[in-house]
Amino acid sequence: METRNFINGKFINSLSKEELAVINPANQNLVGNIDQALDDEIDLAYESAKKAFDKRILIDMDPKDKSRMMRAIAAKLREYREIGGKILSQENGKTIKQCMGEFDGAADTFDFYAGMTDKIQNKLIPSGKDTFNYVILEPFGVSLQIVPWNYPVSIFSGMVAQNWIVGNTIVIKPPELCPISSNFYGKIFEEVGVPEGIINIVHGFGEVTGRKLVKHSGSDYIVFTGSPEVASEILKETADRIIPCHFELGGKSAAIIYPDADIDKAVESTIKGIFKPNAGQICVAMSRVIVHPKIKDEYMTKLVAKSAKLKIGSGEKPDTEITPLISKEQIQRVSNYVNSGVQSGATLALGGKESDNKEGNFYEPTIFDNVPIDATIAQDEIFGPVTSVFNFETEDEAIKIANSTSYGLASGVFTSNDEKAKWTAERIQAGIIWHNDWFVDGTNLPGGGYKKSGYGRDGGVDGIYSHGQTKRVSKRLY
Ligand code: NAD
């Protein structure tokens, strides 16, 4: 597999002569080494993106040609789903099925936006007979994009496709923990014959290459998906340049389960929301559950019984339900949170320790009950298979608990009463609200954060407008 940086339309030999190792979290084996981009590669990547932007390649491209290019990329992503999915699974631990699904989802994203290239309509503002006024959507310029490790192939596709529609050219950094699968994009861009410079892929550690990319004056816009801590650093670092940023950050998403909910559905959704997707290492994990006492015993009994039976193991095994955590550091971080949960007085209802299988970074599904609202485990994003359960009496109290963290990414409401669901959805501070399920998603649906979960929207038509700026043109006719 290609392990070099992709700059100006081709993979280039390393200038920095540095590389980084990629480790399989299921067994600590080396997956491969990838070239690390340092100053020379970064300068070249920005130069290439700037040249492509100044040539107006994406802005002036015939929308039909842009559409054909994006559909060709989608077709190639489908062609490479098996080999790509396998490598992604080795790098980041998810099941091969989930990883092939990520390639499929990325293909769907390129297809969806391929259909949008000729549908962005600008506005003509009615203003009488003396003047003529219109507003157009324009790109920012060169966009720096930084991708997290948990869904690297799908997040890459969303960032790139939306930005190309608007006309931004790109320098993108995949995550250091699983960068190799992202190089399928470089291979695909070469095969499809994507114009030079509209996308450049540079690899490296966040604290080295990431920092250098952010500090560099070559970017006009930054798109970042990752932790709020790094987003805050980016804002401080770019404060003097006053460039726009688009942030999709962490979450502490809560489900409210009312007494009239379908309990079996709520239990299935909890397992799907916190344990099965990547062992809870997902921004929209159902890491909090707010349950009415009338149904709590039944919910907890069923949840604990089903969760205890989940199969923990490597993503290579088709029956695995809980895959590894990404690193030993993440195991330590989750263990520290679990210890703090016990100290807070919460009741440990299930799990609470590393799995007996020490070959990989496996952690047992963990459920805390009766969690104090201000406990650290109730407030911080843990990013592991750990959820906290709370009690509520009144609907207002449920909303208060749901809104009690600094995050606001996703949320859920389980009730058979549509009016109550609507009332609840209107009061929860989050960018996505699911009703009677967790993960009702699609490329055509916009999402994003409230509060510390970020700003800007991705997905659907809203996503396109979120990655550009408008310009008003006003003409006096007489
Ligand atoms: P992270 O913030 O540690 O890293 C994200 C990316 O930033 C990586 O590519 C990393 O190399 C880079 N980076 C790290 N430090 C940097 C620095 N100082 N300067 C520039 N770049 C730097 O996050 P992660 O561990 O990769 O991902 C987990 C986080 O991402 C969680 O908080 C999760 O909720 C969030 N996330 C959010 C969404 C969303 O859509 N809202 C989606 C996926 C993940």
Describe this structure in words.
- The protein has helices at 39-54, 57-60, 63-79, 81-92, 96-114, 152-166, 183-192, 206-215, 228-238, 263-275, 293-308, 328-343, 376-379, 395-402, 418-427, 460-466; strands at 5-7, 10-12, 19-23, 30-35, 123-125, 131-138, 142-146, 169-173, 199-201, 221-225, 245-248, 253-257, 286-291, 347-350, 366-369, 386-391, 407-408, 410-414, 432-435, 450-451, 454-455, 469-476.
- It has a seven-stranded mixed beta sheet, with helices on both faces. A six-stranded mixed beta sheet has the order 9-8-7-10-11-21, with helices on both faces. Strands 5-6-22 form a three-stranded antiparallel beta sheet, with no helix packed on it.
- 39% of the residues lie in helices and 21% in strands.
- A hairpin with a 6-residue loop joins strand 3 and strand 4 (30-35).
- The protein has 478 residues and is of the alpha/beta class.
- The chain has two domains: 5-249 and 453-476, Aldehyde Dehydrogenase, Chain A, domain 1 (3-Layer(aba) Sandwich), CATH 3.40.605.10; 253-442, 3-Layer(aba) Sandwich (Aldehyde Dehydrogenase, Chain A, domain 2).
- The model has no long low-confidence stretch (mean pLDDT 97).
- The relative contact order is 0.14.
- The protein binds nicotinamide-adenine-dinucleotide.
- Residues 146-151, 173, 175-176, 206-207, 210-211, 214, 225-227, 230, 233, 248-251, 283, 381, 383, 409, 449, 454 line the site of nicotinamide-adenine-dinucleotide (NAD).
- Nicotinamide-adenine-dinucleotide binds next to helix 8 and helix 9.
